[in-house]
Design brief:
Blueprint lengths: L9 E8 L4 E7 L3 H8 L7 H4 L5 E7 L4 E8 L10 E11 L5 E7 L12 E2 L5 E8 L2
Parallel strand pairs: 5-7
Antiparallel strand pairs: 1-2, 1-8, 3-4, 4-5, 5-6, 6-8
Keywords: Lipid transport, Lipid-binding, Transport
Organism: Acrocephalus arundinaceus (Great reed-warbler)
GO molecular function: cholesterol binding; cholesterol transfer activity
Length: 136
């Protein structure tokens, strides 16, 4: 939905989660810009539309144009056996000269975002996502 690319353009997407080092990779038939629009962590972005594990994403504080404090909420799961979660992270986004786009994040506490009722406060280890142009 809105994430389809143009013929002939491909992008590699990678996810890495530390310390357990979970990693996922894929090559998508879309331009890096189209793929990035679907996965970048921004308020009002497409991620909440396709990712059933992301209910809402909000910016608590914009520190600069590339660094922000963000709150992500997730819905309950397994017939409400797992409570809704909230995560507060410092997020850095960067675009490199070769067209690679990156977001990196880690857990942070922030005075403007104390734990909210009806949510379990989750903890994200350092993690990130890369969207890398693939030749051809």
């Amino acid at each position: 939905r809105g994430c389809r690319g143009q013929a002939g353009l491909s992008s590699a997407v990678g996810f890495r989660f530390v310390p357990r080092r979970y990693k996922g990779e894929g090559i998508l038939p879309a331009s890096p810009q189209k793929v990035w629009e679907c996965i970048k962590p921004v308020a009002g972005g497409l991620r909440t539309k396709w990712d059933q594990n992301v209910k809402d994403f909000e910016v608590i504080e914009a520190i600069s144009d590339t660094v922000s404090i963000c709150r992500t909420t997730t819905p309950s799961a397994c017939m409400r056996i797992i409570s809704p979660r909230e995560f507060v992270d410092v997020v850095v986004m960067k675009q490199y000269e070769d067209g690679t786009m990156q977001s990196a994040a880690t857990n942070v506490e922030h005075q403007l975002c104390p734990p909210q009722p009806n949510f379990v406060r989750g903890f994200n280890y350092p993690c990130g996502c890369f969207c890398i142009p693939v030749p051809g």
